[in-house]
Specification:
Its EC number is 3.5.1.91. By secondary structure, the protein is of the alpha/beta class. It is built from 20 helices and 21 strands. Helices cover 33% and strands 19% of the residues. Strands 5-8-9-10-11 form a five-stranded mixed β-sheet. It has a five-stranded parallel β-sheet with strand order 14-15-16-17-18, sandwiched between helices. The longest helix has 18 residues.
Length: 527
Amino acid sequence: MRKEQETFTALGIEEDRIIFTGSTEKETLKGYDRYVDLEGMHVFPTLTDSHVHLLYTMILAVSSFNLCEVTDGGIVPDSMDGVEDRVRDYCRSHPKQKIISANQYILSAMKEKRLPDRHELDEWTGGRCMIIYNIDGHSSCISTALMKKLGLSCEGHDGRFSGEEHEFMQGKVTNLIAASVTPGVLARGIANFSNLCARYGISRVCAMDGNEDVKNDILTRLLAFIASRMDIDVRLFPQYLDLERARPFRRLQKYPRAGGCGSWELDGSVGSHSAAFYVPFRDTGEKGHCYYEKSLILSKVKEARQKGIQLSSHAIGEAAIDQIVDCYEQAEKENAGQQDGAGAPLSRIDHFEFPSREAVEKIKKLPVALTVQPGFSWLDKRYLKSYEQFLPKEKAEQQIPLKELAEAGVCICGSSDSPVQSMNPYEQMLGMVEFFLPQQSLTPYQALCTYTREPARMLGEEKDSGTLEVGKKADFCVMKKDFCRAEPGEIGEFCAEYMVKDGKRYEQKKGTVWELVKMLFRRKKKI
């Protein structure tokens, strides 16, 4: 997998390492205890999802539901009446749930072009605590009861939140929801997540977790404890702007990391009208803005570099992207001659969705990785239509030039941003192969590399993973078809027949409390 044409027919492993690759007959391979004939199936390196909100995906999502779904006929529901029906149905079937959380609300598909307000939620839920998240995760609506639990003033507020007001209270919301999670829910959440990863051939995820709006953030410490004992490898990025808050996690981390979303969101999103552009949104006439002054972000980038911290930051609109790119560029210039060693982790920009031409040229010269989710723009172009409705045409066409950057050698990593999107990596790869800008589409092989070789490069773990080579970890997945020869119509339907992790075939989890207890007593590994 170092090159598309590089293939072999035999793979030998001993314990958790690859000891042989080549094209030869079974009879010439002596000394193995067991031989497995795949009968024409295909072997690929396991995948890495480079941007997952692990706590919500793994645990909190067990006690939430999706409001909207994409069907062949369009988005369902597409009106407040339909949303009301779904909320009322869920409340009736879950009478004891303390806090109701709903995801995947598609504002751009609604006839009313808005989120519900708190008074509507109060009526639909009978006065219970509820929060609804827009599909992009950057705006929400909250019932009166939940606003009061969060200590938010209801006077003069309709319960709809966006921008910084939404972003910087998510830790408090998460803490409230998590307080009702039982050991049984936790066990099922871990099992469901692990099994889903194995189904797709994902052996490693980058977890963007932690919230600075809560004092102690015990939940993220608990998550780190769990993650260090899971079957799936986790690389934790604590989402703290105050980099000292990430220090307690360093004893667990394979390499010091911080950032992601949370307090490292430099802007919002297009669908919530909070992405930072230099021009107004076409439907509101208002401009999104950067959440921080450039001087603050520059000081944090310099601090991270000085302390050897791999940094990650959310930037979607051109103004936010320019801000973080300029900060990385300035820090790089000031440290000329003090380059990190070959194979060191790369700091990141997450999303990088609407870069200026200047940012594109600068990023080609910087030791920075880009973490992207083109499955969202694939979905938007065909169903959501938020770019079409909210952005001037020239901005909608100013999306990341995937092919240009990949061919320039920029490290591009694929990811889901789960729970914003499904963890299905093949839907993201479909978004790369059938990109919003057709001339910037990747080949299936290039798309696969964004989930294999490139994440290993970004994490500084190329010696251990990313390709199937002698000496590397025996982490691979088996598929019926050759992904590199797949037609676009087939890509979204791919999955792994099974996954081998650390030289052992992954076994499905049952999600019992006893299984959870045994996992918690395992020897911890680096995250």
